[in-house]
Queue: 2 jobs
Job 1
Amino acid sequence: MRGTGRTVLLIVLDGAADRPASELDGQTPLEAAETPQLDRLASAGISGLMDVGRPGTPLSSDRAHAILFGYDLTEIPGRGVLEARGFDLPIPEDSCVCSASFARIETAIRGWTITDRKVKTAREDCERAAARVDRFEHCGIDVSFTYTWKNRGIVALESDTQPLSAAVTDADPFETGLPIVRPQALEDVENPPAAKETADALEAYVRWSIEQLTEMPVDVVLTKWAGERTSPRSFRKRHGMSARMLTPKPVLQGLGRTLGMAVDGVGSSYTARVDRTLETLESDAFVNLHFPEPDEVAHAHPPSAKRDELETIDAAIEPIVERARSDSDLVVAVTADHTTPSRGDVVHSGEPVPLVIHGETVRTDEVRTIGERPASTGGLGQLRGRDLMYVLRARADRMLLDGLRRAPDVPDYPTKEITPLDRER
Ligand SMILES: [Zn+2]
């Protein structure tokens, strides 16, 4: 249901923002890429930079997307829950759910050192390993492991007798060559005893997994990103718009489901993804089209590969740009969720990302191309990610005059579907 106002299409080029690269003559991959389609949007639209989170914070994709959708991170469950939802796993009430992965380790003077965090082994090997570590019990807490994909799974903790808490450290330090981290309760939390019991159960489980996985192609289950169920207001009730997300990434599919969005688990074909996007613009008021590929390429290849990938995406979205240029009822925004440096060891980094907004209601500026440098001179200035949805709703005429309240569920939405005062009580 599109409802009142224009349709909003938010295209997220995951991790597309980058740092200048000497092999690209000091340009970033996005600046160096030949992107005639994105340049058309920038040229006819307005540009700016955006600090998605607190300036300088290197965000993960799930947290960055939650902020871009207008949510505070305190409303969003830990990533363990989002990943589990991405694989359609149930999240029992009062459970604690962690993301987990198989890793290789070697014994060290104290503890174990992680030698391979991204074990590339056959699915059958992982399924055999999973069968060895799928059920465990510690002091009234049941721990289960469910295999999902690659070398990954979900570890869920449940207890009838013991309150649990996700306020615990990760066993996975997210870096090869470091020791396994002992799961510990975080300090300064709501329920210290629950966090302590949860951490103790996770510690016992990680130790037990090492015993169970002897003579296997993987040595240990590492847990991270513990989460508990939360009840965020749905996207529809926050913004007054029916919403759909098109992404191949399970964790983002899980975020979409958590926010009550329709979710299309699209495949790797860019053409199919773009075609599906054009279809959904007929029925949904807000559509999020996600390209995880720039981030993935940046993690594995030099800056020139990311430049090339961005050129491929640019060519693929031509039908969307054509549609944007001819459809006065469509507002299109293009941005990245975070910066992913394609050189160096950091996972993501905290520089602001470029943002372009195109639509009939959008003021224009002098920017003619997409990129970090051009965006820094754009008419939007520097936005915060948490404001993006309101900026887009404004361009789509989906914001009511501030202070007015027309409907109880989304008071700031200019709905025409009014509950009338009946002539008769
Ligand atoms: Zn990302």
Job 2
Amino acid sequence: MNTPEPLQGASAWDHRYREGTDAWELGEPAPPLRSFLQHHPLAPEPPGRVLVPGCGRGHEAALLAAGGFAALGLDFSAEALAEAQRLHGSGPELQWLHADLFDPVALGATGLTAGSVQGVLEHTCFCAIDPAQRSAYLTTVRELLAPGGWLLGLFWCHPRPGGPPYGAEASTLARQFEQAGFTMACWEAAVGSASGRNGEPRNDEWLGFWRR
Ligand SMILES: C[S@@+](CC[C@H](N)C(=O)[O-])C[C@H]1O[C@@H](n2cnc3c(N)ncnc32)[C@H](O)[C@@H]1O
């Protein structure tokens, strides 16, 4: 009998990248995030170290680096990081970190310690982790942020059971951030989301910007 493949571990994500079963891939930064960073009155100003947890092929990290931030793309999938390096290269302003977001020792080994980043940019990492790990996600990123630091994120608020991608309910998610010690500056239905796989416009993404 075949052992069922784990959905969550690094090897499962490596497998998805190798096999091309990566339906989340946009091939570019998510348009609502790009638009916020480039045009929104609340957009954070560079410089500063910005972490992109679960960065995948690194499109958002590369966008941040091009905008003057020191971007740290973190992923526990070596396949994802190899793709990110191939697509975007690396340098002092764009680094790829191989670690599990939930392993503080591995994070520390990459230089990610308490208060060590000014910003966090979230895109489809939160929906990729088991919902039981969401409070650990929020505790971890809040701990890594310097006081006054920011978190910009695009969240998939769909009601379907199972995952990944795991769904969320917009008001519940906003409450979870508040309970984790974040101060909301913006929480709204995203505008200009990339189309779904059938080409129809997406209307189930929410954009948030918080301060620690
Ligand atoms: C759905 S993909 C999204 C990739 C990228 N953010 C994007 O939007 O194209 C989720 C990513 O999170 C990574 N990931 C999931 N759990 C992780 C963890 N505990 N630590 C680090 N990376 C993780 C996976 O390897 C995968 O690359």
